[in-house]
Automatic annotation (TrEMBL):
<keyword id="KW-0479">Metal-binding</keyword>
<dbReference type="Pfam" id="PF00753">
    <property type="entry name" value="Lactamase_B"/>
</dbReference>
<comment type="similarity">
    <text>Belongs to the metallo-beta-lactamase superfamily.</text>
</comment>
<keyword id="KW-0862">Zinc</keyword>
<protein>
    <submittedName>
        <fullName>N-acyl homoserine lactonase family protein</fullName>
    </submittedName>
</protein>
<dbReference type="InterPro" id="IPR001279">
    <property type="entry name" value="Metallo-B-lactamas"/>
</dbReference>
<dbReference type="InterPro" id="IPR051013">
    <property type="entry name" value="MBL_superfamily_lactonases"/>
</dbReference>
<keyword id="KW-0378">Hydrolase</keyword>
<dbReference type="InterPro" id="IPR036866">
    <property type="entry name" value="RibonucZ/Hydroxyglut_hydro"/>
</dbReference>
<feature type="domain" description="Metallo-beta-lactamase">
    <location>
        <begin position="37"/>
        <end position="243"/>
    </location>
</feature>
Amino acid sequence: MGTAKWVIDAVKLGELQDVPSELIYLEDRSQRTCSLPLIRFVLRSDDRTVVVDTGGPAEDEEVRRKIPFGYVVAEEERVENALARVGVRPGEVDLVINTHLHWDHCSNNDVFGNAEILVQRSELSYAAAPGPDDERAYRIHPDSIPPFTRCLDRIREIEGGTEVAPGLGVLPLPGHSPGSQGVRVDTGTGTFVITGDCIDAVDSWRRWDSEAPLPSGRFTDLADFHASLARLEGTGWTPLPSHDHAVVDTGTFGY
Ligand SMILES: [Zn+2]
């Protein structure tokens, strides 16, 4: 494919609060808690607009109440308002890529009614019947419908790495979940990779010089997780973690 250059906007769609740090940093014993932004990435190149991940629910008080941590969505962070701030109308997005199908990454897929939704086949099959420890990550609570099931007719399953547009590709990053994938984005200032929850936060990726990147405390396969982190290191691309305030604060990448 060609050499299109993309610009990336990282847009905050709410925040998880009081999250135990051992969920973010493997075997962390500090008993700290963290706040984590939910981030949607808007990618633009010429006349094309692609969205990577779509955040959590903003409408349903009951759902919000049942999430085990604090969860807040400010008015300006509601999905339509956050899109308007970066000048995007939902109908002009023709492609959504979900890094994985945990509720905090796909709950607003239905907003993008004209978009095809790209998901790894292994993620879709696991999400349909997750292990008991992972049930809540996909459906929030036992009485609710998993958000990814609202748009099944628009999901296109893919297997492994592939180019999806000029300058844009996906690569499998299993470990956090079986079908987690990253999104490689070529820009005018280098190549970035949207990591999904393979990397939640910059400080689990870049610790001391001598230390390897740290998996998160949520995983389905730890060996796969380490292999995915090693794969990312080998690329030399700049990672954009999925739950780091620094990513939102910088906001725009690629020009
Ligand atoms: Zn996740």
